[in-house]
Each structure stands twice: as C-alpha cells, then as structure tokens.
Target: Polysaccharide biosynthesis protein
Amino acid sequence: MSGSSLLRGTFILTLGTYISRLLGMIYVFPFVALVGSQGTALYSYGYLPYTIFLSLSTVGVPMAVSKFVSRYNALGQYDTSRKLFRVSMLLMLSMGIVSFIILFIMAPVIAPFVLGEPDSTNTAGVNRVEDVAFVIRMVSFALLVVPVMSAIRGFFQGNHSMEPTAVSQVVEQLFRIIFLLGSVYIILKVTKGDLTTAIGYATFAAFVGALGGLLVLAWFWKRKKAKFDEQTGQSVGTSTLSSKEMIKELLTYAGPFVFVGLAIPLYQVVDFFTFNKTMLEIGNAKKYAEYVYSIIQFNVPKLVMIPVSLATAFGLTLVPAITKAFTDGNRQLLHTQINQSIQIVFFLTLPAVVGLTVLSDEMYAMFYEVDELGSTLLAWFAPVAVLFAFFTITSAMLQGIQKQKLAVISLVFGLLLKLLFNVPLITLFEGVGSIIATAIGYLGSVIYSLAMIKRHAQFSFKLALKRSVLMVMFSVAMVIGIILALWAISPVLSYTDGRWESIILTILGVSVGAAIYLYLSYRSNLAGKLLGNRFKVLKRQKVNG
Model:
C-alpha cells in the first residue's frame, strides 16, 4: 500500500473517530435536560456494567485482528488472514452471546449493590432495584452485535481499508443518538410515560446503533468481497497455525492493551459499588446520593474528557515512532519522541483544565443548569484530566517499549489506591472525596509509569520539567486574564442570569485565556518547538533558547 493511501486512510479513520466522539458528547446536553439527575444516574447504572462486559467480551481482539491480518497479508498468506478473520468472528460471536446471557441474568444481582441497599423502600424520586435491573437488561442486547462488528472492523483495518470503520462509527453513533433522544422524548413528553421506561430505551439505543454500524460494514463487505477473494487466490505459502493457536495468539497480544483501555470504567466500577452505599451510611438521603452520583459519573466527565481526548490524540500519534525507535535501538530518537509526547500532552491539557476550573460556574450553567454543587465538582474534577491524559500516554509508551506488563501493573496499582481511599474520602468529603480518590489513583499510576520509563528507556525528564514550568507560568497568566475579564463584565452579566449569559461569559473567558496562553507560547517559541512540524504557522523565524 502506498504511503499516500495509508495517510489518507489514517486521516479518514481519525476524522470518523472524532466525529463519533463529538456526537457522543453533544447528545448529553439535551438528554440531561430531558431526564434530569435521576435519569442520568439510572443511565450510568446501566451503561457501566455494559461497558465492562463489552470490553471483556472483545478483550482487544479487533485490534489484534488488525495487526495479524496486516502481518499475514505482508507475507502473502491471504488465506491465513481469512481464516483468522473467520476464527475471530466465531470467537466474538460466542463471547458476545455468553456476555449477554451473564449480564442479563446477573442484572437483579448487580442492582442492589449500586443502590447501596437491597430493598425498594422510600422510592419517591429515586431509582429502585427493579429499575436498575431493567436498564441493565435493556443495554445488554448490544453485546449480541458489537463484538462481531468490532472484529469486522479489525479485518478491514488490517487490509488498510479505513473507510468502513470510520463510516460505520459515525452511522452507529447517529443511529444511537437519534433513537435515544427520539424514544426518550416520545415516552416522556408525548405519551407521558415513566422515567424508567425512557432510560431503558435510551440504553437499548446501543443495540440499535450497533445494527446501523453493522449494516454499513455489510455494505462495504459486499463491495470489497471480490477483491478479498482474489487476494486469497493469490496466497503464497500457508500458515500451519490451528484455530486454537490463532485464538491463543490473538488473546495473548490483546490482553494487556484492553486492560489498560478499561481504566476509566474500572475506576467508575469502584464508585459503582461503594459511592451510594457510603453516602447512605453517613446519613444522606438516597435522592441526594443519586444526584451527586449522576454529576460525578455522567455530567462532569463528559465536559472534562473533551480536552483530554484532543491532547492524548496528539500525543499518541508519536507512539508508533517510539516503538520503532526502541526496536531499532535508536536511543536518541527514542528520548526525543518521549519528550515530545509528554510535553505536547501537558501543553494542550493544562490550559484546558485550568480554563475548566476557573470557568466551572459558567460552563456548567451553559451546558446544564446553574448548580453550585455541579460547578464545584467540575472545578475539582477538571485537574484529574491532566493525570488521566498522562496515564494514557505513559501506558502507551510502556507498551511501545515492550513493557506491557508494567502498564498493567501501573493500572492495578492506581486502582488499589482508589479502592483504599475511596470510602474514607467519601465519608469525609462526599462527592469531592470520590474525585480526590480518583486523582490519588491516577497520580500513583503516573508516578510508577514515569519511573519505569526512566529505568527501561534510560530517559531524563529535565527538559520536560523545564518546559512544564514555563507552561504553568503561562497558565497562571491565563487565569489572571480570565478573572480580570469576568470581573470587568460582572456589573453587566452574571452566569446566574440564564443560559445565554453563561454562553457569552464562557466564550469571553475562553477567548481571553486562549489568546494569552497562545500568545505567550508563540512569543517564547514553545508552541513552535512542540507543534511546529504539524502547524508551520507556529514556528517563529528566530528561535529563542
């Protein structure tokens, strides 16, 4: 495959992924307006077990399929690639069915744990055990389709055909969102139905979206099947791998990657089983506990993950280069790429989370409603984004230097810290305590990962630390600018006046903060050194220090 075609395919896949993520964030705001905190809490109760079971049912096989199909194709063993595809399809179908059955049956067992109590007493305005079980069962149907769809995507990507994955991702998200918002609106506003039914259909939208994505993949398969058949007929040599050996190879490669990819859901699982129970034990009403849970598990993460996704995407593009430099034994290039990745992630994430913290009142009111607790929890949660971004990039680096087991150890270490501190901190600080426990967990993982990178890549952090100090100084200047701008306009506008006022203040604050940070980064040539190869306009003619 030519370099230009590969670049085009990668661009299409990246674009499709971003459009899908953007759609997945936009729908949240009308959804929250329709169902409120009780509805978002119930939605989270159902979706988290599904996410865990989905990851366990796919176990990273689609990514492994992509790698091994590409490898066998490069060897001219196209028949082996097709056999691998058939084996992976059968494996994904089997695991999807098993996962569906287990989750469907276990739903009534899981539900009491998340609610923190086994009965359904005092149910006015709160979710009951039977509500949670119903929602979990509704979303479990997606497990029958999504794993199979993921294997097909892996096969296409292994053949360097990125369009099917990109288009199917967007269509899947569109089908899901249209069905989700449409069904919730009809049930609640048109037929005046109950909230539990509406949320059940909202989670069932995952199954509807998966069917849409599968239809797109089937269409692409019909178009490309003749080409794949022709390739198979041109196979040279034959692999002696049996189906059992293929499955073992797939799972061995994919295991560590999928486990690290489960970081966010696994941290949420800790809260899933401990948060409401602890809140009730310290004397809070169940309705209040669910209200706080909905904010820290649904509302706030949706806002915080926007800058994280962008920053980590930029940083992770350098990981293949890290892998190649390590494999080639090019220590100097390896250090350069690690340095670049770390600095880019911090450069992009820091101002974003600082802005979210300073503008937490305005942003929460803009996207949701004026809510003192919501904006407070957003201000506390935003800095965790820096730690999560670093966890993502350092885990990828460890895998890039062939230290997958250390990446898994890093995650386990962080999870143990979260487990250790979660209940005591929730007892002391309620919702803020859960966020602090999450921050402690990610911080422990990041420190461990950085120590392992230093040891196994013989890497020095001096340059990264030096430039990080500069980024912190620019962020402080940005904060001062935002505060002064909001103070100057405060006699005229306040975020408590309404959504439009919040929008104006958010735009003002973001514009002032971004202008200050980018100007200082440009004048110091920091932006040029980090992103100049990607954005030529950021490079200054005269390089400063």
The chain is about 85% helix and 0% strand. The mean pLDDT is 84. Residues 56 and 99 are 8 Å apart (CA to CA). The chain has two domains: 1-261, 262-545.
